[in-house]
Design goal:
Chain lengths: ~325, ~250
């Protein structure tokens, strides 16, 4: 049996979780096993459950799970995992997924690969790859432990339909209210933005844009293609853009389908955060910018000339 | 309060990565090693700040070969009170690193275990969560701020599309990222003290292997970058659409 941890937004299963379902379904099929989902909180998405191949969905809706607490979530996940005789547990390689996969591996004495970015090779074991040294190398790991736990980088598999009939189980973990040690005091969401970590397309600006007042063309570009915006460290440090937009070694690491870097030279620390992007387009005035060596497409030119033209062309292409 | 800060040894950010022994082993020839940046800049410095504000003890810990002592001495030079080296081979699995650190923390009554958000070597984000599980403690990952008032930690973290503020009562494990503190350099006094402060070396306890590395490889370079001029922007967009199929 394969257990997959599902996350939702507005009661619908998130894209990254659908990828985890697809990954899990393939492993379940290869082992003639069932695919079991676990979700904390109410979910109103039986369409996706049936369409992508869940055989069973555990819903945990007790008040103790209201605030994400990896300790309590892990206790509940472990209980379901063991009750269903699972051998595999898969998570998304995101903020919560990473915390849970690590905890569950410890709780089950299992083998963990956090950030797996290949489909598992099942010939003679369970081998999976991930990038290491901030994208500079790839490691192939063989999980030899009985319990195999992965968190899976986004875009590792394409979502596939696998019609099934999903049985929904409301599971009661029985965790006492006195176990709650984490309280949420405040949450601030930036309205209307596409969250960077989940974005398929990202448009990013660097020092070459000369000042925060020039971000209009980056935002326009993002709006035209439905992308999230990001920035380099220098830009975040200068407070031109909020810190959560910073991608790179010390900021966030992302792996979108398309990363457009405008006025970013491509220092090794920046590449560490974006080199897993599928396609990279670089716009830079300096033909010697190191980023061109790590890019698929490039334009040597002044961002102030290139971006308006690029935005026009994108508008035409997208019909907006 | 007692703070245990995990310090990893990693190749310098700009190091050229290569492998040997039929791509089964990291080639350390000519590579400069450093303290993992998020461990040093954020986890260690924040622990020191909290100790300076309200007292306590900051211990740095590493699981690795004896030679790693010098990284622990560097951490002491920055301000840690003492150090522990759990002597182990270079490629020890996260599971056993975490298990041994958790055991040490528990037996020695540490209130907080702090790590950097990830190492820049294996990028696994695994250690903090595992330690927390072995100790049955809350784990707040990728925290950007941490305030301590008596027993209550107030912790900020970035979440997808925003920020949240959490309150944790009692002991916990925290992984730290940018925002938590500012890098601190060792001063002369610290460097002198580093030689005299206690550094314990203890053996590691291992068990059955969980995960093996079967192969390393250097990431193949991307194909040649296709260049477009200012007059070819339409062609560029077409390539994004029909060749790369990303928009």
């Amino acid at each position: 049996m394969v257990l997959v941890f599902l996350e939702s937004s507005n009661h619908k299963i998130k894209k990254n979780s659908l990828e985890v379902i697809t990954y899990g379904k393939k492993i379940a099929k290869a082992n003639n096993g069932k695919l079991i989902g676990i979700h904390f909180g109410a979910l109103d998405d039986s369409d996706s459950c049936n369409k992508y191949g869940l055989d069973k969905l555990f819903i945990l809706n007790e008040p103790v799970f209201e605030v994400f607490d990896s300790r309590l979530y892990t206790k509940a996940i472990k209980a379901v995992y063991l009750a269903e005789n699972c051998q595999f547990a898969f998570f998304g390689f995101n903020l919560n997924g990473k915390a849970l996969s690590a905890r569950l591996a410890a709780a089950l004495d299992g083998g963990l690969v956090n950030g797996a970015n290949s489909f598992a090779d099942l010939n003679g074991g369970f081998k999976v790859q991930k990038t290491i040294y901030s994208g500079k190398a790839i490691a192939t790991y063989q999980i030899v432990a009985q319990h195999k736990i992965l968190s899976i980088a986004s875009n590792t598999v394409s979502i596939e339909e696998n019609p099934s009939t999903c049985e929904v189980v409301n599971f009661n973990s029985g965790i006492a209210a006195s176990e709650v040690k984490v309280k949420k005091i405040k949450e601030e969401k930036v309205a209307g933005e596409i969250p960077l970590a989940e974005a398929d397309l990202v448009v990013s600006g660097g020092r070459g844009l000369k000042g925060p007042e020039n971000w209009g063309m980056i935002e326009d570009c993002a709006k035209i293609i439905g992308a999230a915006t990001a920035c380099s460290r220098a830009v975040a440090d200068a407070h031109w853009r909020p810190h959560h937009e910073h991608v790179g070694q010390t900021g966030g690491a992302i792996a979108p389908n398309l990363y457009i870097a405008v006025g970013i030279s491509g220092a090794i620390q920046h590449l560490a955060g974006v080199s897993n992007s599928k396609t990279i387009l670089v716009v830079n005035i300096d033909p010697e910018a190191p980023f061109f060596k790590a890019a698929d497409y490039g334009v040597v030119g002044d961002a102030f000339e290139v971006m308006p033209k690029l935005n026009e062309a994108l508008k035409k292409a997208k019909g907006v | 309060m007692k703070y245990l800060v995990c310090i990893s040894k990693v190749p310098d950010t700009t190091a050229k990565i290569s492998f040997k022994n039929e791509d089964k082993e990291f080639n350390s020839d000519g590579v400069t090693f450093i303290m993992n940046p998020t461990d040093e800049w954020y986890a260690l410095v924040r622990a020191l700040e909290l100790k300076e504000a309200s007292g306590g003890q900051v211990t740095v810990i590493n699981v690795g070969p004896k030679d790693n002592e010098k990284f622990l001495r560097s951490a002491i030079a920055i301000g840690a009170d003492d150090a522990v080296l759990i002597e182990a081979n270079e490629e020890t699995e996260s599971y056993y690193i975490a298990k041994n650190i958790a055991k040490y923390a528990q037996e020695n009554g540490y209130n907080f275990v702090i790590t950097g958000k990830e190492t820049i070597s294996f990028n696994s984000f695994s250690l903090g969560g595992m330690i927390a599980e072995f100790m049955d403690l809350p784990f707040i990952n990728q925290a950007t701020q941490w305030m301590l008032n008596g027993e209550v930690s107030t912790i900020y973290k970035e979440i997808e599309g925003g920020e949240e503020v959490l309150e944790v009562t009692g002991n916990c494990v925290i992984s730290a990222q940018k925002g938590m503190a500012e890098q601190r350099l060792a001063n002369m006094k610290g460097i002198m003290m580093a030689k005299t402060k206690p550094l314990a070396i203890i053996p590691i306890a291992l068990g059955e292997e969980k995960v093996q590395v079967s192969q390393y490889q250097v990431t193949p370079p991307r194909g040649n970058c296709k260049m477009f001029t200012l007059d070819q922007i339409d062609e560029l967009v077409q390539a994004l659409q029909s060749e790369a199929k990303v928009i």
